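Worked example (supplementary).
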Amino acid sequence: MIRKVMFLILIVCVVVFTTATEITWAENKDTPRVVQMTVTPAPQLAEALKYQLLPEFLDQTPGNAALLYHVATAEMPNDHGELIKKMRDWLDMPIEKLPQEEALDAISNFEQALYQLNLAAYREYCDWQLPIRTEGYSLLMPSLSKFKTLGTTLALKARLQIAQEQYDEALNTLRNGFAFAGHIGENNPVLIQDLVAIGITRLLIREIENFVQAPQAPNLYWALTSLPHPFIDMRNSMETEKSMLYIQFPQLRDIETTKLTKQQALALWNEIVGLIEGNSKAYDLDEKMVVAAMMKLHPQAKRQLIAQGHSPQEVEAMPVIQVVLIYQLQQYNRMADEMFKWFRAPYLQARDGLEKAEQHLNQIVSETRENMMRNYFLDLLPALGKAYYVGVQLDRDIAILCCVEAVRMYAADHNGKLPATLAEITKVPVPLDPLSGNEFIYKIVDGKAIIEGPAASPKDALHYELTIRQ
Amino acid sequence: MQNEENITPAQRELETALGSLRPAVTSMDRDLLMFRAGRASGRRYYRTWQGGAAVLAVLLTVSLLHSPTVQPIERVQYVTHEQQAAPSDMMTMTEVPTGPARTRSPMPGNYVRLRNRVLIGGLDELPDTYSSSGPSEPPMNRRQLLEMMLSS
Amino acid sequence: MGSISPEQLSFWYQACGTQLVLYGRNWLDAALAEDVVQEVFVRLMGQRTEIRDVRAWLFRAVRNGAISHLRRQKRRKKRDQRIATQQQNWFEPHPDDLIDAQMAQTALESLPPRQREIVMLRIWGQMTFKEMAGLVDLPLSTVHDHYRTALVRIKSKMELSLCKTKKT
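After joint prediction of all chains, the assembly is encoded as:
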């Protein structure tokens, strides 16, 4: 009898445990990241611009930073995969749990690289001189993952220095990091490099969160506000993205007026498919196969060209593949125009237009998939809405930290009392949420200041809880 | 179409107009077709294999029944490093023929896919040893890419 | 295993599926034409030897399959032909069609089967005259004649239909 009861209890425990685990997992899956901060009030500094997150003009040295960043990557240890995994894990845990000795040991492997990076960070400009106009999509960028590693190392170094109360050193490290990220995005024609810059900056922002929680942490409101807006400007890389297809395939610029042979048209087709599928060796499709696939679209494509003014004889003389390529390229150009134009407007004004353009793109892709020949060109259009959003998310991270610093500033001026609303903060402007154009949501709950930035996706929402240290 | 059939311009127009019509969409289920085709192909392969195995079994039985008694000889062969290092013929058989000479680096396609992955998934999607000189995983097709883009 | 991979099969299916069914409807109703086309694709997958011209193979196989089906139903042959030409729409109407789909179907239905077959192969099968001559087993000049005659008939049929429409 006792055995039966115990067995039953065991079953119940197992069920409860697994259910609780599932619930916890489900709760964490799509919820905002909650940042709980215990902060000391900190007034605006007498010298407001004393602390900066980018090198000051007077401290900069002449020359191109890119050369020294490449030296830094060359100084990195070989085969550091396992080390990087550990470093990332340390960045995911609370700062008080950081194994400081091990972290110091890991960082020491990058000492030479970080020294070169420090020199680079203080250079007055950075020009990567990427040969994008000749290489197009073939451009090699082997340094990107090394940059990611260096960014991770810097973030960890800053964290270690904060944990060891070396605040000046931590600020220096953070300054190197922000300069590095800014340089990665500077004069950069390639979107993926901008995305790497944004990713590194977001790692550093997490360490700013740790920094401002230090008991004697100075107020970084003006340091954060002084960062460029947007911090990573993607307009340059977006211009390149818009033109990349024609950089990669210059013959497409004249495809409507050039008579290709069947072999030339097929070779071009195979190259394009190889580019999209990412396996240029494997695509040597048979002409008949390609033409057969295009049979459905060919009549419509011919009609369009004739309607646009090409003579029927001219169109009939073109290989089937060329006719269809022209048709699809025109479709791509229209969609590219519809999407890229929004990147020239401020995000808040562009957001709805971009969403509609992307819906239109999805609709066309869906139609071509079901009824016609797949338009490979459309695969090249990046998710522009997402790209813009990612950039704005970074600016939002910076803006909400500015809010935090503004609250610390108010608390310092009001004997540790939190403002009831953000409107009560009058000493410095409180930034708006770049995502909505409105104020961040602010409320006092159980003596804590809650600052929130809602988002369409819960995992993108921001939620900061500030407790004033007594 | 070239005018090998000597039709008039008006008839050419009619031809173009007829060509604008799209055959009605069928009720054929593509996935079911692929399943049937694959199954039929497998059955043929299986039957062929079964048949072949049956023949071999018969031959083996016959040979065992009729073969003279043979003393097994133990032979030990020592393999040298030189012998071990020789590449097998299998490698040559599976080699993909190289394409025409290129003036650019050979694997441009990775940029597009990697860019989109980092765009959706963030910095973590950038492999620690990224190089655009070769794919580190099978290429994504459009459906996978679109699904990934739509799921963000 | 055949010489056609699943990816290639899918490719050909997407490229030619509807045209093949339309072609099959020259002899059969929609459902039977689809069955024949399905069987043809299944057979394609199982082909051991390499096929040089897959498209031509497909059309020939559908032709042979459709005619075989018809021969098996000798007693209802004439009725099937009527049904084949009368059942369901052959084309999917679209706003940018340059010609009325229903009128075109009626005009095609009025053609003798051989002429109709040649028009379908030429316009929707995108075959050359040489390929068609090989498929239907007729001299090249005869194929040309059939095609020209068919276009003349379609044109006059459609003009007639337009006149009737205007009068009503």
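Two points are worth noting when inspecting this output. The interface with chain C takes residues 1, 4-7, 10-11, 14-28, 30, 33-34, 36-38, 40-41, 44-45 of chain B (CB under 8 Å). Residues 68-103, 130-152 of chain B have pLDDT under 50 and may be disordered.
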